[in-house]
Structures are given as C-alpha cells and as structure tokens.
Amino acid sequence: MKVNLSRISQIIFLIIFFVLFLMTEYRGKDEISLAVNSFFRANPLVAISYILSAKSFNLILIPALLMIIFSAALGRFFCGWICPLGTTIDIVTKKIKKTKPIAFLKSNLKYYILLILLSSALLNMNIVGIFDPIAIFLRALTFFIYPVFGWIVKGGWAGLYTAIGDKRDYLEFFYKFLKDYILPFRETFYPLAFLSMAFLFLIIFLERYEKRNWCKNICPLGTFLGLLGRLSVFKRIPISVCSDCGACKELCPTGFDREILQKQDCILCMNCQLLCKSKRVRFSLKDFKRKIDEPLPIFERRVFLTGIISGFALSKLFIFTNPDGKKLLRPPGVQSEEDFLKKCVRCGECIKVCLKNALYPSGFQWGVYGLFTPVVIPRLGYCEYNCNLCGQVCPTHAIPNLSLSQKKKSVIGVAVIDKNHCLPYAKRINCIVCEEHYPVEEKAIRLEEVMEKDYKGRLIKLKRPYIIDELCIGCGICENKCPVEGKAAIEVFHIKSKKVN
Q1: Which of 20, 87, 326, 390 makes an SS bond possible with 36, Cβ 3.0 to 4.6 Å?
Q2: Are 226 and 218 within 8 A, CB to CB?
Q3: Can you tell me the distance from the alpha carbon of 59 to that of 41, in angstroms, rounded to the nearest whole number?
Q4: What pLDDT, in 10s, does the model give residues 152-196?
Q5: Helices (H), 318-429
Q6: What is the pLDDT of residues 322-371, one digit of tens each?
C-alpha cells in the first residue's frame, strides 16, 4: 500500500491551523498561550517584508529564517506539505473540471507582484499582508466564515431546543462543549467581511482554469519560496516527462510546463513518484552534483526594473493620507503610526480576540495603505481596561505585547466632550453615564455641580462632566456608552503622545 506522506502532512498541519485558530479566541482566560500567529512567524515573506520595511531584526523572525534555510536546502516543500490555504484548495477543488489556462497568468505576473511588494517594503510601505496567502485565509475565516458558522450553529441549536422540549437537558453537555471550545465568543460581522471572502473565493475560482493556479502563477509567498528552492540539492530525476508515458504532467499540480519540470514551481508533493507505474521517478540528494539542464525562470531585466519602479511608484504615489487623522485610533501600545504600518501583517487576529469588540478592520475611508489594519471604533466597542489579548496574538509585535500593568497605562487617545450634543450642556438634562462607566477609581471624567435656569426660568442643579486629560487613556467606554443617539456627545481622538502615571 502506497502512503502519500505529503497529503498526511497537509491534513495534520491543516488540523493544527484550525485548532490554533479556535484557541485564538477569548475562552474566559486572560492569556492565550498558543495562537495561530505561529504560522505567520514561520512565514518567510512576512519576515523579509518586516526586515525591509522596519530596517531591523526581531527574535520572533527566527522561525521564518529557519524556513528560508530549509526551503533553500530542500525546495518549495512549504506549499505542498504545510500551507493551510494550499491544502484547502486541494480539498475544495478536487473535482472541479479544468478548462484552458489563462494566458495572462502564465506570464511573469507572479514576479512582478513579488518585486512590487518587496520594493515597496524597502521604501517603507509594507502591504505584503494584503496578498499573503495565510493572511488572506485567516481574514476570510475571522471576518466571514467563523461568525457565520457561529450564527448558524446557535440559531440551529435554539430551534432544536424548541423542538425537543423537555428533553433538552440531554443536549446540555454537547452545547457546553461547543460554546467552550468551538463557537466564537461573539458573532460579529465585520466591515470588509465580503471583500475578505471575495479574495478567497477568487483563489478557489481560479482552480477552474488550472490546478493550484494561485500557488503557481500568483502567490507571492510561493514565488519567493520557489526562487529559494532553485538552490535546493533535493532534485527530481528525471527532470522531463518520459517520452513513452507522460503521466507525470497530468499528476503534477504545479511543476510541469513545456514537458519539463520547473523546479521553482515544484511543491514536492511526490505524486509523480508515488504513482509512477514504471518506478522511474525519484527525489534524491545523491545526484545533486550532476549537471542537469534545468531552465531558469524567465526573469528578464525588464521584469526586474518594472517591478522595482512600480514598487517605488506605489510607495510614493498611493499612500493616501487618511482624511480624518484625528479620529484614527490604534490598539493600545502603538506609539508610532509609521512603525505600526511597517510591521502589521493585516491578519485580523487582534480583531478576533478583542474582548469588547473595539477593533475593526480599516477600510478605504482611512487610506489605501491602511486597508485591513486594526482601528479602534469606540462607538461600536471599547477597549477593556483589564485585557491585553491583542498584544499577545500579534505575530510581528506591531501591537506590543504589554503586561497588563503596562497596558493599563497605555494611551489610545483622549476623550473630548461636544457641548453641542452633551445633554447637561445642550439640553440642561442631568446625565452621568460617561462618569459612571469610567473603569478606574481615579476617574478621568468627573462631574461639577452648577446651577442653571431651565426653560421656565427655574433654577435647577446640573451635574456636568469634564475631562482631566492627564488621566484619560482613551479606552472609549464613555463614547460607547453615551446615550445620545447617532454621534456621541463625547468622542475619543488620537493624540501624538501622552503618558499616564
């Protein structure tokens, strides 16, 4: 019995990915010991873009550097043995009938994409996370698939409870298990959920034209690993399709083109060796000294120059400043917007674990460069004072992993009262909601008592809120809880720097 080791490895790593995804969720504990960011920390493309954009090195990049070394030694094995998106493509599209490949995708497009992304990162504009395959897969899961799954299961369970009546207690154990380990903490439908799902759907749709179309012709991570793989001493023999058979070309999901194995596209799935009827195919280290006439990838000078120039143009011409800069709030611990954008991989993990639903993916309204990056929107949720989960799960420390005591002193912004909307000022109606909800004993929002005349001319005692800027951390609970409909009477605005004692 022939055992497909690459397929077993794919399934194992996909299960690990989903288990880590479920564990990267608030389950009643203040710490997340394991997170799906492990896949990002072993991601060479994330590491290279981090180094190029931040112009620095961090110990969290060591797993990715090891992956680079292994890929240079063994080849593009990550795509055929580990990548969760690649495995999902193989499973979901297994029975899709293929039509004629798209000629445009068979060109040098993947090299243009990779060069544009890396040159942009070198020029301080890191947008690799928008096109990284693991980030694309994780965003679709976080923003769309997982909330929909939770909504369907909870709705179905409620219907089941109604149908079985008094026997519902028998199912209590199963629902508790689902709630504690499987279902999301909340079913929030995020902005850009459909755009995130559209990315994944497009990748799957491309399978109609060619097996592993995304992996072979577009994916920047796969392209980078393929270039590293050309250094590999691990080679397939023979390099071309046998004249009396040709089965390899049909079995191979990526590597064969023009009857010759393209080493930079081979994902080492080993299907050709496993299913070779003549037992001719082998992958060997013994023959690495043999000179084999392998064609180099078509990597012309114009491709290189065009990619570099396009990356320069992208970094200089398309960094649209956000039109409402004072309202752009980042997660706690972020001190520099520029430094944050250089490191953020746009994976959405911080958004997923945000306890009070304060974080949302940024859309185009805050600039093209900031797409999918996390922003605090206090009107929709607030930053829980006793929570530091977002820093724990961030794979690149774009959000610093602060201790809880440090996080409590981290300033997101400062609250400002709009006296034209605030009820005690505008309507002469007592309201102390913002002061009541402030989470710290030494309150940054306090009340002053004043005597005012009502509309009948009678003197009334009013309690008016005011802000002590030096104590405000900008958690946003005041804006979130403000009872005024629509625009809150108190809002949190970004400030450049401030310390809280």
Answers
A1: 20
A2: no
A3: 10
A4: 988 888 788 778 767 777 778 888 888 888 999 887 888 899 999
A5: 337-343, 349-353, 389-393, 404-408, 423-426
A6: 555 556 899 999 988 889 999 999 999 999 999 999 999 998 877 778 88
SS3 string, 321-348, reads: CCCCHHHCCCCCCCCCHHHHHHHCCCCC
CA distances from 103 to 30, 46, 107, 108 (A): 51, 29, 7, 11
Identify the CATH assignment for 325-408 out of 3.30.70.20, 1.10.287.70, 3.30.70.270, 3.40.50.720: 3.30.70.20
Query: Taking the domains of the chain in order of start, what are their residue ranges?
Result: 5-143+192-284, 325-408, 414-493
Q: Letter for the amino acid at 320?
A: F
CB 12 within 8 A of CB 322: no
pLDDT of residue 386: 93
pTM: 0.90
How far is 334 from 31, CA to CA, in rounded Å?
Answer: 20
* Sequence-separated (6 or more) residues with CB below 8 Å from residue 211: 98, 253, 254
- Please check the confidence at residue 383 and state whether its pLDDT lies above 90: yes
Preceding omega of 238 cis (within 30 degrees of 0): yes
383 burial via Cβ count (<10 Å: 0-12, 13-18, 19+):
buried
Query: Is-contact 59 112, C-beta < 8 A?
Result: no
The pLDDT of residue 290 is: 46
What backbone phi and psi angles, to 5 degrees, belong to 225? -65, -35
- Strand pairing of 359-361 and 374-376? antiparallel
The mean per-residue pLDDT over the stretch 440-449 comes to 90
Chain-centroid distance of CA 67 in Å reads 20
Instruction: Please tell me the distance from the alpha carbon of residue 494 to that of residue 484, in angstroms, as a whole number.
Output: 22
Local structure of 425: helix, strand or coil: helix
| CA 449 – CA 434 distance, rounded (Å) | 15
DSSP per residue, 160-180: HHHHHGGGGGGGHHHHHHIII
